């Protein structure tokens, strides 16, 4: 499988496992897990043919580690980024003192007024380092990196979670915790 095919399948998996499993009539359980064989069969019925070996390669080689298998590789799910309600079974964690978020100038006025909002996603995503935040922000243009005073947020009672692939998650970052 070439890189272009891998990217196409990865985008398909993101759609199905994070946003719209009904697109291929796939059932996710309450924790976001899907049966791998059912995924492969229903994907093929909708023109997305790939093998278990190719799926395992995509999960293992993804730079963002968006997906995970269970221990027996019979079930798969997205690690975070859901716009559908799933319980990832994450426990609240103490975040580092500062986390980062990449955005673009167009959103700064709104962010300064309302803070960072999760929008249609289940959680807001924050990065441990500026380089990752810059990569995320650059998807929409010239990135602006926001520094989040996550340590103070936590001390003030706001919760943070850490996904399996190292993305920090929270529900909202009020404007007072954001440094431009």
From TrEMBL:
Enzyme class: transferase
Record-listed E.C. numbers: 2.7.1.-
GO-annotated biological processes: tRNA splicing, via endonucleolytic cleavage and ligation
InterPro entries referenced in this protein's UniProt entry, alphabetically: Ptrans_KptA/Tpt1 (IPR002745), RNA_2'-PTrans_C (IPR042081), RNA_2'-PTrans_KptA (IPR022928), RNA_2'-PTrans_N (IPR042080)
Signal peptide segment: none
MF (Gene Ontology): NAD+ poly-ADP-ribosyltransferase activity; tRNA 2'-phosphotransferase activity
Keywords: NAD, Transferase
Function comment: Removes the 2'-phosphate from RNA via an intermediate in which the phosphate is ADP-ribosylated by NAD followed by a presumed transesterification to release the RNA and generate ADP-ribose 1''-2''-cyclic phosphate (APPR>P). May function as an ADP-ribosylase.
Homology family: Belongs to the KptA/TPT1 family.
The protein, known as: Probable RNA 2'-phosphotransferase
Gene: kptA
């Amino acid at each position: 499988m070439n890189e272009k095919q891998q990217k196409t399948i990865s985008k398909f998996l993101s759609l199905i496992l994070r946003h719209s499993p009904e697109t291929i009539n796939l059932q996710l359980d309450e924790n976001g897990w899907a049966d791998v064989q059912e995924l492969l069969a229903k994907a093929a019925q909708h023109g997305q043919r790939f093998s278990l070996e190719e799926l395992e390669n995509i999960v293992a080689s993804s730079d963002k580690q968006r997906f995970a298998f269970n221990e027996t590789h019979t079930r798969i799910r997205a690690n975070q980024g859901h716009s559908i309600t799933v319980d990832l079974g994450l426990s609240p964690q103490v975040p580092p003192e500062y986390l980062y978020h990449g955005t673009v100038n167009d959103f700064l006025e709104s962010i300064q007024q309302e803070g960072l909002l999760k929008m249609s996603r289940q959680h807001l995503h924050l990065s441990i380092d500026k380089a990752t935040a810059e990569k995320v922000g650059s998807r929409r243009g010239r990135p602006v990196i926001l520094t989040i005073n996550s340590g103070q947020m936590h001390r003030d009672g706001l919760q943070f979670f850490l996904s399996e692939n190292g993305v920090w998650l929270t529900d909202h970052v009020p404007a007072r915790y954001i440094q431009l």
